[in-house]
Amino acid sequence: MPEIAGVGPARARRPFFGRLAEQYRTSNKVGYVMVLPYIAHFLLFTAYPLVFALILVFNRWDIVTPMEFIGLRNIQRLFRDATFWTAVVNTLKFLCCHIPLQIVLSLLIAVILNGPIKFRSFFRGAFFLPFVISGAVVTILWQQLYSTDAGILNLILTRIGMQPVPWLTDPAWAIYSIAIMATWKNMGFYIVLFLAGLQNVPPELYEAASIDGANRTQQFWGITLPLLQPVMLLVVILSTIGGFSLFIEPFVMTGGGPAESTLSVVLYLYKQAFQFLRMGYAATIGFALAIMIFIVTFIQRRLLDTDQPV
What we know:
1% strand; single chain; 15 helices
């Protein structure tokens, strides 16, 4: 057997855990002590909840009585649950409205704020401010704006001769009204991401394109947008994950109504867990949501990341 450089044949054949124990004995113990809080946090707040939730999938539990093993009944029920699939459709409607709005508006404002405008720092802070405000506070504010009778938006519409819009009381409008509000709240965070990407674009490219006769529109489509591809992918994935996690907005504004038109998957999970105490079924919904997020983000990465093989 050929010897490994610096290691004799006997040591090379030593079992993996034996080598690991020797490495631990000869290493600096301070490093292990420093990472111990993180390991404890991970085991207590990440690993344990995941394992416990997986156990709940195969059990019936209402917190009060002991767990009852029921096998795959929760999974079978999930596929037959029409309300769950209504929540999935509502969430997808929200995503189809929220993500394009988020990308277009955030990118447009970031391009403007990246230019030589007055009070640029003030506007950057003003656009970021809604993101750091409590979601419940923003939701209550927009609930007042959307009020059919006394909301500012409908007062403006009536002043210009239009009919009031039932923003939150009409099933055809409600989920899209929530999407507009969520876009307004989260837009500041994505503006910061786009600004960081724009400031990494070499100005020499714009100078060369300008010398060649390219106008601002051609520079945007030929230089800015291609170089923003990594940021664009990040924005799309984060917006998707945030959209699938939709909860505070429908919970506070509509409670999932009217006619379950704003019932999101996370809100339905919450109701199953904390209103009906069906912890096993709620855990099943949670794992189904995680699988959906993984599938959608995987497809997005394949479609948007040209560096990855398709």
